[in-house]
Amino acid sequence: MSNKLSFYIDRPGPLHGLNPLTKLAVAFAFIIIAFSAHWYWAPLAIFIAGIIPIAVAGRLGREFFSTGVRLFLPLFAFLFIMQSLFYPGGETVLFRLWFLTVKLEGVRFAFLTAMRILVMVSSFMLVLLSTHPSALMSDLTQRGFPAMLSYIVTSTLQIIPQMRNKAGTIIDAQRSRGLNTEGSLGQRVKALLPLVGPLVFGSLVDVEERAVALEARAFNAPRKKTSLREIPDTNWEKVLRWFCLILMVASIGSNIWLS
Amino acid sequence: MNLIRSIKKDFNTMTLVLIPVAIAINVVIGEIVVVLKLPVYLDSIGTVLVGALCGPWAGALTGTLSNTIWGLLIDPNALPWFPVALLIGFVAGWCARFGLFTNWWKVIISGILISLTSATASTPISVWLYGGITASGSSFITAFLLQTGHGLISSVLSTNFLVEPVDKVTTALLAFAIIQGLSVRYVARFPRSENVMVEKKGTHNTQIIVAIAIAAVLIVIAATVLVSLLAS
User: What count of CB pairs under 8 Å joins A to B?
Assistant: First the structure.
């Protein structure tokens, strides 16, 4: 019916057994170091020596690579073209193409930015590929995160596929009744309201019923609630998380101290 | 104490249930717009809706979670932009508190205020994380401005000031249209329903005249800001 909503891949591996918070801590450590290090090659080093080995060890290499290509290729192509041609203050010209000049400083800046984005997005990707969203939410709730937020995230994950299906149905239904979804800009703008209207009002009608259902199940009761799902957490992971925190602080500190 | 009470007032059970629906509205309408190939994003309608019906704090939360969930599910590139969405929800909530969601020309003003905030807030993120170039059509404008010798920050800021108003004013108007389409009994269950009661006074003509006057003033202000940005 609905396509897979989250990035999560259900395959037992070393990454899947880790506590979600540990994975987030490591991801943030990678990102902060990549963005605050003064060494030009730091992001690339983190990617090659840290992220790729973890992806392979977690048996996520194939999906990691395919989603990575899908996400990064357009962005990087755009980035490189734009920055090489239009970077302000670039002077060393590498070559000319018609009336466009490619400047070295632009290429260098594009490469650095691309590497940083690569580290940022790919480390989050690793977390997402190996963590089911509701596992993350359960863990956070057990640590004292407000149950309200956990409910909102989990509920959204269920509603979005439903709403996408509804939207598809509405688009098909309106098209079969003669709604023009291609054509001039004016026609497409006029097509927006007949598509958006039924979708939004249909979804909002549910809201009141859900609210009543929640209240009938004592959702707002102030007691601590026991959970059906227990998320494991080990001691060495706690040590690792503190280590990541120290690394992050040290990295930001050295950035400020060195500049 | 007053602040905490004001925050708590925003969140009753209806708010809690509306937020996931609003986030889903953000996602799905954002995708419909891509199907229709319109030159806008329209991915904040739910956020503005929650801001108007439930208050600024609920709107801010909706914006944050919307970007977070979009980043978790669809495209991690959306994650760093959550402060922008946060501010969109927050400003929408405050506009509604100040009575700017009661008829359509006031909603246009809200839309412009929201677009000013989002343009200003998205500039630092774009510059620091992405070097000013994001994977959207507006980057061409930025590139053109860069080429003609303007600094990075003023190029990105000018691009955003040009692109955001259309999107956000449309968003605000659509959110207003949605609220108008709901029954008063339904709207009354939300914490800040008094913000969206339509006023009855004023004829249609006066409204149009006031709308044109305000739009003219705002266009003049925007033009002056743009010119001074480009000249610096």
Answer: 161
What are the residues facing A97 on neighbouring strands?
A100
Q: Which residue is closest to B139 within chain A, CA to CA?
A: A82
Partner B, chain A 181-200, Cβ-Cβ below 8 Å: 181, 185, 188-189, 191-193, 195-197, 199-200
Q: Does residue A126 sit in the same domain as residue A252? A: yes
User: Do residues A121 and A83 make contact, with C-beta atoms less than 8 angstroms apart?
Assistant: no
Nearest partner of A83 among A109, A61, A57, judged by Cα: A109
Q: Give backbone dihedrals phi and psi of A177, rounded to 5 degrees, phi first.
A: -100, 10
Contact list, B29 vs chain A (CB under 8 Å):
196, 199-200
Q: How far is CA A209 from CA A121, A177, A229, B179, B182, in A?
A: 38, 31, 26, 18, 15
Please list the pLDDT of chain A residue by residue as tens digits (259 residues): 334 566 777 777 777 878 888 888 888 888 888 888 777 888 888 888 888 888 888 777 788 888 888 878 877 887 777 777 766 666 667 777 666 677 777 778 888 888 888 888 888 888 888 888 778 888 888 787 787 888 888 888 888 888 888 888 888 888 898 888 777 877 777 777 788 888 888 888 888 888 888 888 877 777 777 777 777 788 888 888 888 889 888 888 888 887 7
Closest CA to B109 of B121, B99, B119, B118: B99
Distance from C-alpha of B191 to C-alpha of A225, rounded to nearest angstrom = 26
Residues 146-165 of B with CB under 8 A from A: 146-147, 149-152
Task: Calculate how close chain B gets to A155, using CA atoms only, in Å.
Answer: 6
My answer on whether A242 and A124 are in the same domain is yes
Is A40 inside any structural domain? yes
How many structural domains comprise chain B? 1
Residues A171-210: pLDDT tens digits? 888 889 888 877 787 777 777 778 888 888 888 888 888 8
- pTM flag (> 0.90): no
Is the domain of A155 the same as that of A125?
A: no
